[in-house]
Write a structure and sequence with these properties.
Distance between the termini: 37 Å
Strand content: 15-25%
Helix content: 25-40%
Strand order of the largest sheet: 6-13-11-9-7-8
Radius of gyration: 19 Å
Number of strands: 13
Number of helices: 8
Largest sheet: 6 strands, mixed
Oligomer: single chain
Shape: elongated
């Protein structure tokens, strides 16, 4: 018998992939849209006002949810943080607030919180070549270094990604996100700030070491590949088993057409 799965839906294509996987697994699904969603035919979808978290919890409980999953980009409102998480100041930002909200959700709804990878394991990146041209052993060494740096950036709760050129860190993700990080690197490149060397620009994404698996895992998709190519980034390295690969078939095609290599490496906390 399938689960009664409540999907707290944010932005991005991940929502549709999680919905499809849940329905395919025989789950009874209801989508609680925290932001406007594309039409999902045949799916029970209700609007959830993020300014009214108490009503959201009541609606999840009324659905009879046995499990809850957060899918897509989610940003907690001040009301959510204050009424549910009880967080203020620095602890009210980033994954700390999302984790606290998740714990409160579990306590009040009686449902089990799961990660999107528990709805569809195929969303997780595997180790090895994922898409695009094959890479050299030297590039794998740089990728391992870059992922280590990305984890340290994450340990400070700054972001989940860095761009490196050889052993030099070029830029790190901040609150503006991965796409803005890559656009920033593109501007640096146009301004000649990256020098005239031949070192490959590599984007690395990794889960923050303190981050639970059910909250905001790092993710890449078609837009990641396209934006990387525009910025002059030719390799994307992700932490295998802890990074989501969205729209996999279109991503593989985009990587091939743009000449961007995508690889997965096992994490090491």
């Amino acid at each position: 018998m399938g689960r009664a799965l409540a999907i707290l839906a944010g932005t991005g294509s991940l929502v549709g992939e999680v919905v499809a996987a849940a329905i395919g697994a025989g789950d009874r699904v209801r989508v609680f849209a925290l932001v406007p969603q594309e039409t999902l035919p045949g799916v029970d979808t209700v609007s959830a006002d993020p300014r009214d978290p108490e009503r959201l919890l009541a609606d999840v409980a009324a659905f009879g949810a046995s499990h809850v999953v957060m899918a897509g980009g989610l940003m907690l409102t001040d009301q959510m943080r204050e009424r549910l998480g009880g967080l203020t100041g620095a602890s009210a930002l980033g994954d700390a607030a999302l984790s606290q909200f998740a714990r409160t959700l579990i306590a009040r709804s009686g449902a089990q919180l799961i990660g999107v990878h528990e709805v569809s394991e195929t969303l997780l990146a595997a180790s090895g070549h994922i898409a695009g041209p094959p890479v050299t052993e030297a590039t794998l060494t740089v990728a391992a270094f870059a992922l280590g740096v990305a984890r340290e950036i994450g340990r400070l709760d700054l972001g989940q990604a860095v761009v490196v050129s050889g052993s030099r860190v070029v830029a790190a993700e901040d609150v503006a996100g991965t796409d803005e990080l890559m656009r920033r690197v593109g501007r640096y490149r146009e301004q000649g700030l990256l020098g005239g060397g031949t070192s490959t620009l590599l984007l690395a994404k990794a889960k923050k070491p303190q981050q639970p698996m059910h909250v905001d895992l790092p993710a890449i998709g078609v837009d990641t590949v396209r934006t990387a190519a525009e910025a002059g980034i030719s390799v994307i390295a992700v932490e295998a088993g802890r990074t989501l690969v969205l729209s996999r078939t279109p991503l593989v095609e985009a990587a091939r057409s743009h000449g961007v290599s995508v690889i997965g490496l096992a994490g090491d906390d």
